[in-house]
Amino acid sequence: MRLSQNSGVPIYQQIADSFKSDILAGKYAQGEYLPSIRGLARDLKISVITTMKAYELLEQEGLVTAEQGKGFYVNAQDSEMLIEQHLRKVEASLTEAIAAARIAGLSDDELKNMLDALLMVQD
């Protein structure tokens, strides 16, 4: 799991997003437990509170369930529904980015170049 202090995205959100991607990709099966909160915090060198916040976010989204004394396990997923939710979020974010680009006076080509550059950095 790669975390960035400079991305502008809170660490807990980065952790939750990483687990969401892994769950959707089938890296965690239904009923499988996520790493312990303390263990993950230790491995990532972050606070237990940050890890707990990420897991609570996953629980709020229905991806995992907390089991007292055991940890968090992966719920059964309707992957098509989850993918559709993510696509709607992407579309909303892109729509917002296009509006901001228009306000800034960027041309379509400049916006596409900016997106291409960001995509290259992410890979």
TrEMBL record:
Keyword DNA damage assigned: no
Limits of the HTH gntR-type domain: 9-77
Organism of origin: Coprococcus eutactus
PROSITE patterns reported for this sequence: HTH_GNTR
Protein name, as recorded: GntR family transcriptional regulator
Domain of life: Bacteria
Gene3D superfamilies: Winged helix-like DNA-binding domain superfamily/Winged helix DNA-binding domain
PANTHER family hit by this protein: GNTR-FAMILY TRANSCRIPTIONAL REGULATOR (PTHR38445:SF7), HTH-TYPE TRANSCRIPTIONAL REPRESSOR YTRA (PTHR38445)
GO molecular function annotations of the record: DNA binding; DNA-binding transcription factor activity
Alphabetized UniProt keyword annotations: DNA-binding, Transcription, Transcription regulation
Phylogenetic placement of the source organism: Bacteria, Bacillati, Bacillota, Clostridia, Lachnospirales
